Amino acid sequence: MWINSAGRKYIRAMHPGISPQEVFVKGSEMWGAMVDEVKFVWQEAARTAMADYKKKGAVRSVASL
To answer: Mind naming one GO cellular-component term on file for this protein (predicted)?
Structure first.
């Protein structure tokens, strides 16, 4: 989730012209260097987003019956 929101924009701003593959590599390096407290915020956001997605998917499944 981090790389899809704040991370990609930050990397592209710091490294103009970088390829998509290099963005992923830089993002992986940055994620690995992050302290656990910062990662936790993004991991919680991802858990919440997944729960919302699954809940909406269940609603769509029932609605299509």
So the answer is: nucleus
Looking up tokens 């963005």, which residue turns up? 23
Q: What is the 3-state secondary structure (H, E, C) of 1-63?
A: CCHHHHHHHHHHHHCCCCCHHHHHHHHHHHHHHCCHHHHHHHHHHHHHHHHHHHHHHHHHHHH
User: Domains of the chain by range and CATH?
Assistant: 3-63 (1.10.30)
pLDDT at 3: 79
Cα distances (angstroms) measured from residue 43 to each of 7, 21, 39, 49, 58: 14, 23, 6, 10, 23
Cα 55 from Cα 5, distance rounded (Å): 22
Q: Where are the beta strands (DSSP E) in 9-50?
A: none
